[in-house]
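Good morning C.,

I know you're traveling, so I'll keep this short. The sequence:
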Amino acid sequence: MGNSFSANYDYKELFEVSSPASLSHYFYPGASQIGGHDGMLVEVYPDEYAAWQGTFAFGKVIPNGLSGVFAMPNPQQICVVSRGSGYLVSVINPTSWECIDAIPVIGVYPVLAQGIVVFASFTNLVAYGLEGVKWRTERLTWDGMKITELTDRFIKGEFWDLRNESTAEFIVDLATGSHEGGASGF
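The tokens, ready to paste straight into the viewer:
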């Protein structure tokens, strides 16, 4: 599943719409059943609920961006990242969904000890817990964030600091989202 959070569903990535055509099909963003954009196709099999298919629109920022399916702290929620666009969807109610608040998603970091999944964009981090967004950092980098270390307590990264024309670092407390270092205050 991409990480070790337990999930109350199974899934399968598809390359074309599969039979039976009787499965409900949703297009994200929007959860429309009429149609939508090209994207990553995933078939979801919730425990004790009807299976459904979802087409998750490709992101437009990075043509070859991150794609994958990830379990979340909420075992009835699936996360699909489609070329950098991230979506959280209830597996038992596919019309209940939201976009991940990191554009584009360049990294996904589950931290079981904190009960969160941290999503990285080019400039900041956002953590989702059991009930949604737990914290969001202010801008940490100018661009090109690179995560260098992840523990149960902190996440550390680096970036090119334009002000000093050198590599700079930041460290974020995973419990609170507070940080030291980074490009804030520019």
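Safe travels,
E.
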